[in-house]
Structure formats: C-alpha cells, structure tokens
Specification:
about 280 residues, Rossmann fold, 2 domains, 12 helices, 11 strands
C-alpha cells in the first residue's frame, strides 16, 4: 500500500459534519504515526509503506478518530495562538473562540508589567500565551488535580516557569492579592446544552469544565460576585461567555459594582467575550 492509498481509503471511511477538516486531520494522523513532516508525506505519497509499526499506529489512531474522539486527544497536543500545548481528557481542547479572549487581553495589557489571574486555567493555554506575549506575571488557578498536572507540564514545555505560577484552587486564590487583570473561560453550558452537545464532546471532554448548572451562568455569577475584591482599581475582568448570556452577565456586573466596557463577538457573530471594569 502507498501513502496516497492509505490517505484515500481513510478519507472515504470518515463521515462528519465538518468534512472540510477531515483531510487535515488524516494528514496529522499520518505525520504522527509515521514520524514524518507534512512535506515528507507529500513527497512520499506515491511510495510504498514499509513502516509496519507506523501503519499499526495509524490504524489504531484512526479507529479512535472514527469513534468520534477529538483529534487533539489522539495526538496529545493542540495548537493555540501559535503555540503547541499538551492536552489530555483531563482538560478541554483549546478552541479558536478563546483566542479572542487572549487577543483582547494582550491588547489591554500592552507592554506594561501586570499581575494577571487566570481562573480555571485548564491546559494553561491562556496563561502561557499571556506570559509569552506580554510582560504579565500570571497566577494560573485550577481546581482539578489531573488538569493541574497538564497545566504544569505546559508551563515547563513553553519555558514560562518564571512568569506563570500554577496553583490548586477554586475560582480565587486562598491568599489575598490584587490583580490588574482577571481572565476566565469558565464552564458556561447549561445541563440542556450538555445534553444537546455533540457526542465527541459529551463522550470525551471533561463535563466539569463545561457545565455550570441548570442555567449555564452559575460559575460566571460566582466569579463576577467576588472579582472586585481581587481586582485593582482601574483593572479589567475578561470573561468568555456562552451564546445568549450577555444580558445575565450584565446583571451580575451591575450587582457587583462593575460595568461592561466592551463585548467581543466571535467568528459566528456570537457575543463571546465580555470586558468589564469597576464602576
């Protein structure tokens, strides 16, 4: 069998709503299984496959992809904002929508030093990128112990040990500290959202990192209610929110003495990132 035949046979076997993404996923599996680059794959596409172990690795990984497992978990890594992060089923797969939060945070931070709190840091995708691309010193807080291990591995992998401090905790650190910025991509799905989510999410991604409660805004409400105690005067709170949640978040902000200063829409036009400041 040639590499091109392996690719074509696998592509015919795959089905899914995002068909345009399938060729890239298969290329990534082939590159990983045979330890070759994309360029090498296209150079070798008409050559016979002699790597029996690589073929076995590909078929094993392909079965997982056919079952609906996210490609990132199969490859054990995911690119986010130009950086390659370790991922596992202990953490969410980083998504493009969260890059909008990072982009806005970097815009606000500029080049000045700042202390940033990342609530529910997960894989560390937000924390690591902020540390790499700004002068921020980041406190990355994560409640899940398995996720915390992935977070610490990514901090080491990207070499930001002196800029990112990983702590175990729920929403806010135990010790009082003031931050110029608080960022959070918290759970914001309702239980109904979870039931209607694709099987690839429900079967593989951590439910506790996605589902907030019956309404979906419960964790957002808890963060907003306490944020002003940890935020310096003039500081910024950036929240990733779910579709249709902006109005509820505005209410939480008003009750907490904060005001929305901006709302960023995602690529589908959905209100996705709320920026707030003390009133």
């Amino acid at each position: 069998m040639r590499y091109a035949e392996l690719f074509a046979d696998a592509l015919r076997a795959l089905r899914g709503p995002k068909k345009e993404e399938l060729p890239a996923a298969l290329e990534a599996l082939i590159e990983s299984s045979f330890a070759i680059s994309r360029t090498q794959f296209w150079i070798r596409k008409n050559q016979a496959i002699h790597d029996a172990a690589g073929l076995k690795r590909f078929r094993r990984a392909f079965r997982r992809l056919l079952a609906g497992e996210p490609l990132a978990y199969i490859l054990k890594e995911k690119e986010f904002y130009g950086e390659c992060l370790i991922v596992s089923p202990a953490v969410l797969v980083p998504r493009p929508e969260t890059e909008l939060l990072v982009e806005k945070a970097l815009e606000i931070l500029g080049v000045r030093p700042a202390r940033v709190l990342d609530i529910g840091a997960g894989s560390g995708n937000i924390s690591v990128v902020l540390a790499l691309r700004s002068q921020a010193m980041v406190t990355a807080l994560e409640l899940s112990r398995p996720a915390l291990r992935i977070l610490r591995r990514n901090i080491a992998r990207l070499g930001v040990q002196n800029r990112v401090r990983a702590l175990a905790g729920d929403l806010f650190p135990r010790e009082a500290e003031a931050f110029q910025m608080i960022v959070a991509n918290p759970p914001y799905l309702s239980r109904k959202d979870w039931r209607e989510a694709p099987a690839s999410i429900r079967n593989y991604e951590p439910k506790t990192a996605l589902v907030a409660g019956p309404r979906g805004t419960e964790i957002l409400a808890r963060i907003v209610a306490r944020a002003s105690r940890w935020l310096e005067p003039g500081g910024h709170l950036l929240l990733e929110i779910g579709q249709g949640q902006r109005r509820a978040v505005r209410g939480f902000l008003a009750t907490a003495g904060l005001r929305e200063s901006e709302c960023v829409r995602d690529y589908a036009g959905i209100e996705r990132v709320v920026v707030a400041r003390p009133s």
